[in-house]
TrEMBL record:
Name of the protein this chain belongs to: Cell division protein FtsQ
Source domain of life: Bacteria
Annotated transmembrane regions: 42-71
Keywords assigned: Membrane, Transmembrane, Transmembrane helix
């Protein structure tokens, strides 16, 4: 029997023109065919990911920094130094008012005319004002929208020291030397004269600083320096608004001058408007044990002025303080003031 090979029929795919299905993209396999973790490939992937993230972070940070820098330079965030707001204006005796004051502050600190408000450091701007001779302290700094507000406490002139016929120094109540070129004498309030023996004119670099003439070669000036500072504090005490108002109402309370007592070292003599001399003693805060305080002395002085006045009977007589009030001293019965 003959057997014939039956031809095999190959099934057609049906549609010879159908597009081929693309093969799946090859993944980054972290597991080998053996089932083990491919550490090398995993490490490579981690490094690549870290590099990409670093580049993105750098690019993002650079973009943000550039945007911030651009914003800080925009005109709306630029402030002229002379447009800084001072809620408390400078003393009326300061020549030129607030505009000149701000210009002098800027020049004194070598600051630019225009400040980028968003870059201003409060501590630095505070130092700029604190180092100006007329500023006693910086009380606050605020940043309203596109602005800068600086609240200051100022040094107020209270005393003048006539060192020589041609040289005069103006002091605040702490004994700080104030720049006389800034003072408008026509708007300057009443100053009390400090008259001390053996004075030396302070160096020019002491302007804006506490009175001092002592040097390593002249230590004996230290006592005089302390006296000047103490007298300035006493002048500031007399010119406090409440006491000055009392002195306006009762002229015999108005203090004209403060004198030292170099011979007997009893403290300060105070000269009032009617020509009376009062042995005041030590200045405020420097009283001797048992000595009345400055406030107690003022109360005694005010009571005496109301009761009978302070006009002396003779030119060289003076008044002195006791625990119970003022006593009148005749020049013939005690050392002359």
């Amino acid at each position: 029997m003959n057997y014939r090979d039956i031809p095999r029929i190959v099934a057609s795919d049906g549609d010879d023109d159908a597009p081929e299905v693309p093969s799946r993209p090859r993944r980054f396999e972290f597991v080998r065919t053996t089932g083990r973790l491919d550490v090398r490939r995993l490490a490579t992937a981690c490094v690549l990911t870290a590099c990409i993230l670093a580049v993105l972070a750098y690019a993002g940070g650079h973009a943000v920094s550039s945007a911030v820098a651009w914003l800080h330079k925009q005109p709306r965030y630029q402030l002229r130094f002379d447009r800084i707001e001072l809620p408390v204006p400078p003393p009326s005796c300061f020549r030129g008012g607030a505009a000149t004051f701000l210009d002098r502050v800027r020049r004194n600190a070598n600051e630019p005319e225009v400040l980028p408000v968003l870059d201003v450091d409060p501590d630095r701007i505070g130092d700029v004002f604190k180092h100006f001779p007329w500023v006693e302290r910086v009380e606050s700094i605020a940043f309203p929208p596109r602005g800068l507000v600086v609240r200051l406490a100022y040094r107020i002139p209270v005393a003048r020291v006539q060192v020589t016929a041609a040289d005069q120094v103006v002091l605040d109540r702490e004994g700080c030397i104030l720049p006389q070129q800034d003072i408008d004498t026509e708007r300057l309030g009443r100053l009390i004269s400090i008259q001390v023996h053996g004075l030396t004119l302070p160096d020019k670099d002491r302007v804006g600083k506490i009175w001092r003439t002592e040097t390593a070669k002249t230590p004996e000036r230290a006592a005089v320096d302390r006296g000047i500072v103490q007298a300035a504090k006493l002048a500031g005490f007399f010119l406090e608004p409440g006491r000055e108002a009392e002195a306006v109402a009762e002229p015999s309370l108005q203090v004209l001058a403060i004198h030292d007592d170099p011979k007997l070292n009893r403290g300060w003599f105070v000269q009032t408007t009617p020509g009376a001399f009062i042995l005041w003693g030590r200045g405020p805060g420097d009283e001797q044990p048992g000595e009345p305080s400055a406030a107690e002395k003022w109360d005694m002085l005010a009571k005496r002025a109301q009761d009978g006045g302070l006009k002396p009977e003779r030119p060289r007589d003076y008044w002195t303080f006791g625990r119970s009030g003022l006593s009148y001293i005749r020049a013939a019965s005690a050392a002359n003031p």
